[in-house]
Amino acid sequence: MSENGRTRIPATLSLDLDNKWSYLKTHGDPQWERLPSYLDVVVPRALEMLGRRGTKISFFIVGKDASDPRHDATLASIPAAGHEIGNHSYNHEPWLHLYSERQLEEELARAEESIQRATGQRPVGFRGPGFSLSRSTLEVLSRRGYRYDASTLPTFIGPLARAYYFATSRLSAEEKEQRRALYGSVSDALRPLDAYLWTLGDRSLLEIPVTTMPVFRVPIHVSYVLYLSLFSVALAKLYFSLAVRMCRLTRTAPSILLHPLDLMGREDDDELAFFPAMRASLASKLRLVEYCLDLLDEHFEVMRMIDYADRLLATETLRRVRPEFGLAATAAQARTREAGT
pLDDT (tens digit, 9 = 90+) per residue, 98-138? Predict the structure, then answer.
């Protein structure tokens, strides 16, 4: 396809299928142990919206949900509609970067088994919960045959997002320490926006970052756009249209992220009111989501992440990046490894 005589830039769209219990758990609410779910609401809405457009995307599924027979029919409907299934860990713990390699092997293997049982697909793409990532995670993914990782979010505002999260949560001091690297550090903003290869000795692994606005490095995923709409819908639309223009000007292939709460409104669930955009109505949120998808469809060739990964690995000369992470996370992971846990 072409636009004004030029090849259309590819774009990927993905949905992290975080369930209600995972949000409550990260928030420090003990009610998460009941494993409350909204998957039977969110998944049909997502499939209906995407089906009308003929758009195929990637769904990153949490293994604990895939292991629950209650969700079998709902999760099986995703690949049946032609969408890719990715791995979003088993327990959805945003401190995955603190796991030892043995813990990571167990976490990923358990998630893979559950996801394949429920959907019939073995995932070959991974996104860490809360964008958690470490060299050990990359090593384990590479050994287990993954085609790509999609856990990086190159933005300067990660520490601000973490501060807001801590201020609105019910976490103890110990739990906050455990989550101290949530949403990354300022140094993470210096990582590339375009896809690249992590160098892992004699191996490599493709990284497809969640795109932030070129030059400014501020988030452009749909949840952030919906947050801006609480102040002004016009501002939110202008912001996303600017992001689209910046991607086109810089020839950046955007990887845009959706979350379940993007497809839910205040009338759906009042227990999740600690998420700012859950103060908005369902109708207003869906209109803005449709606006964002319309812009992507108009200006890019939207595809599943695995299709983009295959295209890159087959045809592109990719930049290589050494996997270097924050000293605090590295030291904490070393302590975990030394303790043998």
Answer: 899 999 999 999 999 999 999 999 999 999 998 999 999 99
- The structure tokens listed for 178 are 């455990």
Identify the sign of the CA torsion 237, 243, 247, 250: positive
In order, the DSSP letters of 238-278 are: HHHHHHHHHHHHTT---EEEE-GGGG--TTT-GGGTTSGGG
Q: Would you list the DSSP string of 45-71?
A: HHHHHHHHHT---EEEE-HHHHTSGGG
Q: Which CATH architecture has domain 2-339?
A: Alpha-Beta Barrel (3.20)
Residues 106 and 323: their CA atoms lie apart, in Å, by: 22
Lowest mean pLDDT among 13-27, 75-89, 167-181, 276-290: 167-181
Beta strands per DSSP E along the chain: 2-3, 6-7, 9-17, 58-61, 84-87, 125-126, 148-149, 196-200, 203-207, 255-258, 300-303, 320-321
Cα–Cα dist 18/37, whole Å: 10
Q: 257: number of CA atoms within 13 Å, CB side? A: 23
Its pTM stands at 0.90
